[in-house]
Design goal:
The protein is mainly alpha-helical. The protein has helices at 20-23, 28-37, 42-57, 59-70, 74-82, 87-100, 108-124, 128-149, 154-191, 195-212, 227-257.
Length: 259
């Protein structure tokens, strides 16, 4: 598969009737179902909104720490260079992304902006195995700030940390779903005449639907070593990562009940 990549700062996105959310069936009910699956509550949203001033004060430090990790991986730097961007430009975009994560409003507009990130990831050739780690990096940089902010309130520190993990998972889920939709469209566009590939795409779509509905126990059987096989391996890796994150949240929730 030879997918054309564009400039990372390019504003135009795949054309569809309505929004990107509409193009993948992400209506209000689907959005709420994902938030409910993460046990994301109004209290979580309020805690995140209250944390926004803290995050904004420390945003430059957090983003610097984020990119200190990026520059250690030459593959990521090559992708950034090939996309026609640079770290200064990306730092400004990441700062906005980070602060918005703590806005407290996770409705249709928020989802649409996050889905655009998945489109850009696909366009520049950034695969999920790389950007999933970014959410982990953010968690490692944000959690110490939250713990210091509520040093004398351990219960609130735990609840705020859990809320931050949930919104990171929500963002990861949205970016992944858009990435998968983009890659699936690419495969259909170049391979509709091949019956075996059409069948594999149908299997992947069924798998994606099940994972989106909350079944993280599934895994695909991978055959061969081509583009479809690599995509299947990435989907399995993504699902395993999401399952691990959900188990971590469940463990944190159990600890919270004891506070």
């Amino acid at each position: 598969m030879n997918v054309k990549r564009g400039n990372i700062m390019e504003k135009s996105l795949p054309q569809a009737e309505g929004s990107l959310a509409d193009s993948i069936g992400m209506d209000t009910a689907a959005r709420e179902r994902r938030l409910q699956f993460l046990s994301f509550t109004r209290e979580d949203a309020r805690l995140l909104r209250d944390l926004q001033p803290l995050i904004e004060r420390n945003a430059d430090k957090i983003v610097d720490g984020f990119y200190q990790n990026v520059v250690r991986h030459q593959h990521l730097m090559t992708i950034i260079d090939s996309a026609g961007s640079n770290l200064d430009r990306l730092r400004a975009a990441q700062r906005r992304y980070l602060v918005e994560m703590f806005c407290g409003d996770y409705g249709a507009d928020y989802v649409e902006r996050r889905l655009r990130i998945g489109v850009v990831h696909n366009r520049i050739g950034l695969t999920p195995d790389w950007y999933l780690g970014s959410y982990g990096t953010y968690a490692q940089l944000i959690m110490p700030l939250i713990n210091r902010q509520f040093m004398l309130q351990p219960g609130k520190a735990l609840r705020a940390s859990l809320a931050a993990i949930k919104v990171l998972m929500f963002d990861a889920q949205l970016a992944i779903e858009m990435y998968i939709a983009s890659v699936t469209d690419d495969l259909k566009a170049v391979s509709m005449s091949k019956g075996d590939i059409e069948e594999r795409v149908r299997q992947y779509e069924t798998f994606i639907d099940a994972v989106s509905a909350g079944d993280l126990s599934r895994r695909l059987e991978i055959e061969g070593s081509g583009d479809l096989a690599r995509l299947g391996g990435q989907l399995n890796q993504l699902t395993a990562s999401l399952e691990d994150m959900v188990q971590q949240v469940a463990g944190t929730s159990s600890s919270l009940n004891d506070v």
